[in-house]
Write a structure and sequence with these properties.
By secondary structure, the protein is an alpha+beta fold. It is 40% helix and 12% strand. It is built from 16 helices and ten strands. The protein has a five-stranded mixed beta sheet. A three-stranded antiparallel beta sheet has the order 8-7-9. Strands 4-5 form a two-stranded antiparallel ribbon.
């Protein structure tokens, strides 16, 4: 997504901090403040408080939401929709933009190591290896999200909400929206688009200079590499979700050969790569390449409407499907305003907020709610949402969705790409 389209990796953490946190993880991973899990539909909250007591304790508190700030529509949604709704509940919501979610993670981990209990972060837009790293270090508050009243509108068996990049959620984060890795093309320049990832790579080889991808560890570039791994392995079922060194050694030679063979056909003959998805989008917008890619297709509608992307922009659906996941909101154990953070997370899950956020005119993010669990009136609101002229409905874009690999795969694949592909002679 920033989460999901640009959640960062754990690169950038100070090595000594990582080592120290490994010790913390062993000794204190269960020591973060807990929320009693609901029983029989109970809405018990923090420290055994009822939900009414949680809401009362939250009044007058300020919640600092640290989130990637590179999506103007996401920023506008938080500022103009979610923040006023929080204010109506007596909570001040303050959005803190970061250039990379690892900045928030590093702050949380530093506070965790220092034993801080009145930290600067109350909520983090997070997923993937960031969540897993924090969870291993006991940096997230756990056991609270099951007690949110609006969780009853989600499917408790939804695999995207139960696990985050293979890490069990276990009440340590609250779902916010779903995402799907999406390839995008200009139909005026690609009139007969491929229908498989192998076909995309063949098209790129046949049209030198018209395709490229962001360099890992950029999140979008990283997921592209994982998508190619699924393709060269003969499908995601052939890649164990849990990281396995033997599987890595067996499966990645074909991956590295495919990407190395492709390199001379890339933009600028693969001598350089876009630093991130934003840079790739600019190449596409400027007509230097004919395809782009994103883990957050919600942005496409606005980019086309504003003329940034050509009106002939289309989503490329693949027969074998693409990788999908969900974004979450996590509460650091060091948050001094945990009740108010819970109130904001519950509000973000409400049918009203989820429907507004799903509107392409607002943000266009795919809901995490199971609409069959909603009241007839709330379900009608979702049914009446305008269709995007660019992005297919979620059931279409997520058809044959591929599961994410566990977070433990991410760093080895990113490093393997650097060594085997980037370091190879172009």
């Amino acid at each position: 997504m920033r989460p999901p389209t640009r959640p960062p990796g754990i690169r950038g953490l100070v090595p000594s901090l990582v080592s120290a946190l490994a010790v913390v993880a062993v000794t204190t991973s269960c020591a973060a403040p807990q929320v009693a899990a609901p029983s029989g539909g109970s809405t018990s909250g923090a420290a055994g408080l009822s939900w009414a007591q949680v809401k009362e304790a939250a009044r007058g508190q300020t919640v600092s939401l640290w989130m990637w700030g590179g999506d103007p529509k996401g920023n506008a949604y938080v500022d103009t929709v979610l923040t006023p709704a929080a204010a109506a509940s007596g909570v001040t919501l303050r959005r803190v933009p970061v250039s990379d979610t690892k900045d928030a993670l590093n702050r949380v981990l530093s506070e965790r190591q220092a034993g801080v209990t009145d930290g600067k972060i109350d909520l983090v837009w997070v997923n993937g290896d960031n969540f897993s790293t924090g969870q291993q270090a006991g940096a997230w508050r756990c056991g609270w999200s099951e007690s949110l009243p609006n969780m009853r509108y989600t499917d408790p068996k939804d695999p995207l909400l139960v696990n985050d990049f293979g890490a069990p959620v276990r009440g340590c984060e609250s779902p916010w929206h779903k995402a799907q890795f999406t390839l995008v093309y200009d139909s005026a320049k690609v009139p007969d688009p491929p229908t498989s990832l192998a076909g995309v790579l063949e098209w790129a080889a046949a049209h030198p200079g018209r395709f490229t991808y962001p360099a890992p560890p950029d999140f979008t570039g990283s997921v592209f590499v994982r998508q190619v791994l699924y393709s060269t392995a003969g499908g995601y079922a052939n890649v164990p979700a849990t990281y396995d060194k033997a599987a890595f050694d067996r499966l990645t030679p074909a991956l590295w050969k495919t990407l190395t063979d492709l390199r001379p056909s890339l933009w600028r003959q693969g001598s350089t790569y876009p630093r991130d998805s934003v840079a790739l989008d600019k190449l596409y917008a400027d007509g230097e390449v004919d395809m782009t890619m994103t883990y957050g297709p919600a942005t496409l509608t606005d980019l086309v409407a504003k003329g940034t992307f050509p009106r002939t922009t289309r989503v490329l659906t693949l027969d074998e499907g693409t990788v999908g996941n969900a974004s979450f909101l996590a509460i650091p154990a060091s948050s001094p305003h945990q009740e108010a953070a819970m109130v904001v997370a519950d509000l973000a899950l409400s049918p009203a907020q989820q429907a507004t956020k799903a509107d392409p005119a607002t943000w266009g993010q795919f809901t995490v709610l199971d609409t069959s669990r909603l009241s007839a009136g709330d379900a009608d609101v979702f049914a009446a949402l305008p269709a995007s002229p660019v992005v297919p409905p979620y059931p279409v874009i997520s058809k044959n969705a591929n599961p994410e690999l566990s977070a433990a795969w991410v760093a080895p694949l990113d490093e393997g790409w650097r060594r085997a592909v980037l370091s190879a002679s172009p």
